[in-house]
Amino acid sequence: LFIAVGKYHQLVLEGFHVPPGYSSFLFVLALFNYMVVLMGNGVVVCVIIIDKNLHRPMFVMICHLVVCDLLGATAVLPRLMMHFLTGERRIAHIPAIAQAFSVHTYGVATQTLLGAMAYDRYIAVCEPLRYHAIMTSARLHSCCGLAWFVALLCIAVLFAFHMNTPLCGNIIKHVYCSNRAILRLACRSTPINNIYGLSMSWSVSTGIFIIIAFSYFRILQASVKRSNVDSGVRSKAFQTCTSHLVVYVLYEIASVIIIVSHRFASASQDIKKFFSILFIIIPPAINPIIYGLVSKELRSSIIKHFTKQVFHKK
Question: Which residues form a coiled coil (predicted)?
Fold first, then answer.
């Protein structure tokens, strides 16, 4: 017999099974990961804002991607740290919805922003002489705004199905709140939400893949044609697009790992939960390193400002 859970009642996140004596160690790991995310992404944003030479479409889009990474990491890691440190698992209904909304927005916005970045790289390589005429400030902000609008709209519709859905349980069998995890507690079946969720996920992933594949196919074509005239074109195109492609591939690998891990019934629940947060804890921590290693201009600017600060203190 289940008792319906009100909208303002406490839910309980099952979280990880933490062996005695390991809570502090896991808290330190989660804290370290979050500090790396904050510092790495913070440095990238600050340098891009300070250095006027980086006020260009590619770096503006990187700033949007950084905001998206911070959204995903901040939605999950602070509560996970609290779970490890204090054992607190309770979460009110509205914060649970807010966390789930943020996590899903992070997942969709990352893809839509990467799609916008692919379009920018396509124009930069395939139409270099017309690039500034095409990618104006208005077009740039429109692309970024559209990427966020699509993500927020998709997730807003997804969570609109939560309205007037009574819950007949309060234990969320996950590390963080998600649409599916919350609706598993529903007193009745939710087929419309299930169909919309799957359709939306498939449409966004497939659509962004087509945009990126088309963009890079045209970039490859343009690079091969122009490399016969200018040998430096291919290496310049490679340097321009590598960071974007690596970030996209990393995100997709993390997503595939989550899907594959749930296909193994023999795998422990903690292993499945760990894999399910990989796409939140790994890309936001690694992406700033990818930007810095691949983008020579960003790397040089970071080194220049860091050196200036060091000598200024001395």
Answer: none
Would you say how long the chain is, in residues?
314
- ∠ CA 232-238-242, nearest 5°, is 160
**pTM for the full predicted model:** 0.87
Burial of 280 (0-12, 13-18, 19+ CB in 10 A): buried
**Distance (Å, whole) CA 89 – CA 192:** 30
- Cβ(279)–Cβ(176) under 8 Å? no
Domain ranges of the chain: 10-313
Hey, what are 108's tokens? 């969709």
Sheet strands (E) in the chain: 10-13, 90-92, 171-172
Q: Could you identify the residue written with the tokens 């009745």?
A: 188
Burial class for 80, CB neighbours closer than 10 Å (0-12, 13-18, 19+): buried
Please report how the helices 283-294 and 296-313 are oriented relative to each other, as an axis angle in degrees rounded to 10: 90
- Residue pair 52/2 in contact by the 8 Å Cβ criterion: no
Task: Report the CATH superfamily, name and number, of domain 10-313.
Answer: Rhodopsin 7-helix transmembrane proteins (1.20.1070.10)
pLDDT in tens, 95-153: 999 999 999 999 999 999 999 999 998 898 888 888 889 999 999 999 999 999 999 99
* Closest among 14, 160, 201, 10 to 96, alpha carbons compared: 10
Alpha-carbon Rg of the chain, whole angstroms? Answer: 22
